[in-house]
Amino acid sequence: MTPLNPPLPPRLLPLLDQFDFARTRLADRLAGPVMDSGNGTDVDVVPMTDEEYLWEPVAGCWSVRRRADGPGPGATLLIGAGEWGHDYAAAPHPAPPPFTTIAWRLSHLSELLTLRADHTTGTHTLTRDDYRVSGDAAGAMAAFDAGADAWRKALLATDETALDTVGRSTYPHGSDRENVFIDIVWWVNQELLHHGAEVALIRDLYRHR
């Protein structure tokens, strides 16, 4: 009899552990009440406010905006469903790239997780225009948790064969269709790690503004 929950592939385990660590670290860094300093010591965290979420530290930032207000400087459209969207421009993109707010970075990360989960074990149909962008901090943090949950669930449905399957993820905004799935798992981790670090730095800058 095939077990209901077969063990995960050994190659996936360190990547899953890394994802869980980076996810928890970013969520705690955003919402608190404490986060691990890195050496096991708890550091107090003030939860992110709407003002901080939308804070533009330099001129010409890309952010999330009410659709009625139109796109920001250098952007040509607002991506997403509902009242809010995030700044975007079709290729060729602005060079150098615009500085992006916490709102833009967190929206991008949550959208990426949600859509990749759908294009791995879901309907394989969701697009950026289906993703509802949050205009407030609480909604954005909830969307991040939901996206991370969905991606983690997709990982738990992965066996050895799936790890080596080219195009297991059909996510249309990357090279997923040309790569083995374990490479996509690694890529999503680095997206979470580097955008999480960027968000943390902007939080530090906001506190010392």
List the helices and strands and how they pair.
Blueprint (H helix, E strand, L loop, with lengths): L12 H19 L2 E3 L5 E3 L5 H4 L10 E3 L10 E3 L4 E5 L13 H20 L15 H20 L3 H4 L17 H27 L2
Helix pairs in contact: 1-4, 1-6, 3-4, 3-6
Order of helices and strands: HEEHEEEHHHH
Radius of gyration: 18 Å
Q: In DSSP terms, counting alpha (H) and pi (I) runs of 4 or more, how many helices?
A: 6
Largest sheet geometry: 3 strands, antiparallel
CATH architecture descriptor of the domain at 14-34 and 45-54 and 101-207: Up-down Bundle
Based on DSSP secondary structure assignment, what is the total number of beta strands? 5
Looking at CATH, which topology of the domain at 14-34 and 45-54 and 101-207 would you report? Four Helix Bundle (Hemerythrin (Met), subunit A)
The shape, in one word, is globular
Could you give the order of strands across the largest sheet?
Answer: 3-5-4
